[in-house]
Amino acid sequence: MLILKKVVAQVEVRKKNKFMAAEAALDFVQIDFGSNEYQQLLSLRLRYLREPLGLQFSEKDLASDESDVHFGARTTDGLIMGGLALRVDGLACRLRQMLVHPDLRRRGVGKLLLKHAEAYCLEQNVLHISMHARLSAKDFYEKCGYRQIGDSFVEVTIPHIIMNKQLEKFQNLRGK
Ligand SMILES: CC(C)(COP(=O)(O)OP(=O)(O)OC[C@H]1O[C@@H](n2cnc3c(N)ncnc32)[C@H](O)[C@@H]1OP(=O)(O)O)[C@@H](O)C(=O)NCCC(=O)NCCS
Question: Which of 4, 44, 115, 163, by CA, is between 20 and 30 Å from 86?
């Protein structure tokens, strides 16, 4: 995994501004359904979101992917290291399937992915993002400005909560 080591090194270059550093080493790109990058993202999702729970993707899960908008964090060598899916419906958007490769976590990549997704939503005049968040990811989403609504419930075998965020027009893409 020489390429991965190189990326990790690049991401850690400027510790004082980890968001800038992560962005310097990764491109945040929209991914076409069915493309090679989509297949990479799907493999990551399967390996790190579903298989640890003893689950696979259902046909229904994959069918909804076709109409979703996908974003990924891509290395200069073309490896997809994280991503998310968005389902836009008028002024609202549902966020799904968010993950970052374990080797790149806690370096600001997830936060940047969300910032790029939010910038896309604002371009689409979406003002409200919500999700069924894993309870284990609650602190991450809170740091990114999302708030819990209601009590926890079980989904795909583990506790989840609904979280949401009102987007503000003119919000700073890289601001905290
Ligand atoms: C949740 C996840 C996407 C976060 O991605 P990440 O790249 O590690 O997050 P970042 O480095 O951008 O973190 C942003 C902030 O959240 C904090 N944070 C990240 N993960 C956290 C966690 N599990 N618990 C507490 N805080 C966390 C970071 O310390 C950072 O805080 P700071 O702004 O004060 O420095 C990633 O951990 C992941 O893929 N987890 C497994 C899959 C998953 O749970 N996905 C969510 C499904 S709803």
Answer: 4
pLDDT tens sequence across 117-159: 999 999 999 999 999 999 999 999 999 999 999 999 999 999 9
- Location of structure tokens 């998310």: 84
CA distances from 118 to 4, 19, 31, 56, 80 (A): 27, 16, 16, 28, 19
Q: What tokens does 5 get?
A: 């080591």
* Dist. CA 4 → ligand 1 center (Å): 19
16-30 pLDDT per residue, tens = 566 666 767 899 999
- From the alpha carbon of 160, which atom of ligand 1 is closest? 48
* Cβ-count burial 40-62 (b if 16+ within 10 Å, e if not): bbbebbeeebbeeeeeeeeeeee
Distance 103 CA to ligand 1 centre (A): 12
> Would you say residue 94 has pLDDT above 70?
yes
